[in-house]
């Protein structure tokens, strides 16, 4: 059980429905704290928390904060101008951001595994969590996406292992207290906070140095920038990869017609097992290798790893089959960075000789502006790319960037592209354009998945 200051009983979480904060709330509820919080809309996560006993308000109002509250926890999306945040400051109530709270939770477990990287965190955390769960190790799990096996993004168990994603945004993961840290890759992202890639590498270097001397650093040796961390590791080092000599390697890789793969897993010169993945793409071979390395280091059997990975169908919004529209397959994916888009569309290209339509919603103005040219070359495996308006998320429109700028650059790359501002325009276009056998992707970290829901729920459009 989590043990905070013994005077803390009532905890209020601002942004309680968020994918990270909701998982914390579930752990706190299971540790017998009295939980309340707020969010702007009712979701699957808030409804689940209400069923577990949380009190949730669907507006953010300073009146919700009073002297009976012992601690306020807030998400990264909450600004100091938020009325509940301001009221907590006014009443001098102790406050922790989400990352600080998670660091406190991690410190209460014997083994805390943090999965970091620019891409693949949710998939890898899901794989590793399922392996440990199937091995009856009873891990407590916090994932950045919903996983059907856990009926959500968190699972609280009685064991002494915690697994969580570790995001570098705003250096949040530097508040963590891991005993095992996994680094999948390092890439330019969150450039509204970081100045450049060098600063991002420096942040990951600080993260890997958080490990105790008897901890484990698990690093992708094939990733150019992740490899820069190796000289700085002061804990036990384990590497994984495909192209360079690593402790854990995937060899004899064979791709099926549907883009899924089979490969041999080796620990140095020792053959461990033949792995079959049910999700496509080379990037998922790397994700599975990271999960295998983490699980094997804890003592999970090769039989459990093999069966878990074969049965793993992916986390929510990760190459997720949503249904059909006019005899075309509709897939939703969370990819919102150029590297992720390329990997997802490359995997899709192995699935079909038919047309691929990618409907992309850029996520945040700063990311779109800073990586504009990288985005423009990311859609070469799509036969048609539809760009819709930027999803602002935590930002305000600066006026410096527009989705039309991205569409124009994609066109200059010689790719077929359309800019359609609204979901209604996209649906109307798909009605006339779509042919049987097509693959339609909805792609992005915002609410673009709603387009897929609209078309799959009404084939009469």
Short characterization:
It is built from 14 helices and 21 strands. It has helices at 19-30, 44-52, 83-90, 98-106, 121-134, 197-208, 282-298, 302-311, 338-349, 365-370, 372-376, 403-412, 423-433, 449-457, and strands at 10-14, 34-38, 55-57, 71-74, 95-97, 111-116, 140-147, 152-155, 161-166, 180-183, 216-220, 236-241, 248-255, 261-267, 270-276, 320-325, 328-333, 356-360, 384-387, 417-419, 439-443.
Q: How would you sum up this structure, described in words?
A:
It contains 14 helices and 21 strands. It is globular. β10, α6 and β11 form a beta-alpha-beta unit. It is an alpha/beta fold. The protein has three domains: 89 residues, Rossmann fold (3-Layer(aba) Sandwich); 203 residues, Mur-like, catalytic domain (UDP-N-acetylmuramoyl-L-alanine:D-glutamate ligase, 3-Layer(aba) Sandwich), CATH 3.40.1190; 138 residues, Alpha-Beta Complex (Protein-Tyrosine Phosphatase, Chain A), CATH 3.90.190.20. The protein has a ten-stranded mixed β-sheet with strand order 8-7-9-6-10-11-12-13-14-15, sandwiched between helices. It has a six-stranded mixed β-sheet with strand order 16-17-21-18-19-20, with helices on both faces. Helices cover 31% and strands 24% of the residues.
Total individual domains: 3
Characterize the largest beta sheet: strand count, sense, and whether it forms a barrel.
10 strands, mixed
Q: Indicate the structural class.
A: alpha/beta
Q: Examine the coordinates and then state which fold CATH places here, giving the name of the CATH topology of the largest domain.
A: UDP-N-acetylmuramoyl-L-alanine:D-glutamate ligase
User: Considering the protein shown, what is the CATH homologous superfamily of the largest domain?
Assistant: Mur-like, catalytic domain
- Strand residue content: 15-25%
Nearest-angstrom radius of gyration?
22 Å
Form type: globular
* Average of the residue pLDDT scores: 93
The count of strands amounts to: 21
Low-confidence stretches: none
* Estimated helix fraction: 25-40%
Strand arrangement within the widest β-sheet reads 8-7-9-6-10-11-12-13-14-15
CATH-level-2 architecture of the largest domain: 3-Layer(aba) Sandwich
Distance between the termini: 52 Å
């Amino acid at each position: 059980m989590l043990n905070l200051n013994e005077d803390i009983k009532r905890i209020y979480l601002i942004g309680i429905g968020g994918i990270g904060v909701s998982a914390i709330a579930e752990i706190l509820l299971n540790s017998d704290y009295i939980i309340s919080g707020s969010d702007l809309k009712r979701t699957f996560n808030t409804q689940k928390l209400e069923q577990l006993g949380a009190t949730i308000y669907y507006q953010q109002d300073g009146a919700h904060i009073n002297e009976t509250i012992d601690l306020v926890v807030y998400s990264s999306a909450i600004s100091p101008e938020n009325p509940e945040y301001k009221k907590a400051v006014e009443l001098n109530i102790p406050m922790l951001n989400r990352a600080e709270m998670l660091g406190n939770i991690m410190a209460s477990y014997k083994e805390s595994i943090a999965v970091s990287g620019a891409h693949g965190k949710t998939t890898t955390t899901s794989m590793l969590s399922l392996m440990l769960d199937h091995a009856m190790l009873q891990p407590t799990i916090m994932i950045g996406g919903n996983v059907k096996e856990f009926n959500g993004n968190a699972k609280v168990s009685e064991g002494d292992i915690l697994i969580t994603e570790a995001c570098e945004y705003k250096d949040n993961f530097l508040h963590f207290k891991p005993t095992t840290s996994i680094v999948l890759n390092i890439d330019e992202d969150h450039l509204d906070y970081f100045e450049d890639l060098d600063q991002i590498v420096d942040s990951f270097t600080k993260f890997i140095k958080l490990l105790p001397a008897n901890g484990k650093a698990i690093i992708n040796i094939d990733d150019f920038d992740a490899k820069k961390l190796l000289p700085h590791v002061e804990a036990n080092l384990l590497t994984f990869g495909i192209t360079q000599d690593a402790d854990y390697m995937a060899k004899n890789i064979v791709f099926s017609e549907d883009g899924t793969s089979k490969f041999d897993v080796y620990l140095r010169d020792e053959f461990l097992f033949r792995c079959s993945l049910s999700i496509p793409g080379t990037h998922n071979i790397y994700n599975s290798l990271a999960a295998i390395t983490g699980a094997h280091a804890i003592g999970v059997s090769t039989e459990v790893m093999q069966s878990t990975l074969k049965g793993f169908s992916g986390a929510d919004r990760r190459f997720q089959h949503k249904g059909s529209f006019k005899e075309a397959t509709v897939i939703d994916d969370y990819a919102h960075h150029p590297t992720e888009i390329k990997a997802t569309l490359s995997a899709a290209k192995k699935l079909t000789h038919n047309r691929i339509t990618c409907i992309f919603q850029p996520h945040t103005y700063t990311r779109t502006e800073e990586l504009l040219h990288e985005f423009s070359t990311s859609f070469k495996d799509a036969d048609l790319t539809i760009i819709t308006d930027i999803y602002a998320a935590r930002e305000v429109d600066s006026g410096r960037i527009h989705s039309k700028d991205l569409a124009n650059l994609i066109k200059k790359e010689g790719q077929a592209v359309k800019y359609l501002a609204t979901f209604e325009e996209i649906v109307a276009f798909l009605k006339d354009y779509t042919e049987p056998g097509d693959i339609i992707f909805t792609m992005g970290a915002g609410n673009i998945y709603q387009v897929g829901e609209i078309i799959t729920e009404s084939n009469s459009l």
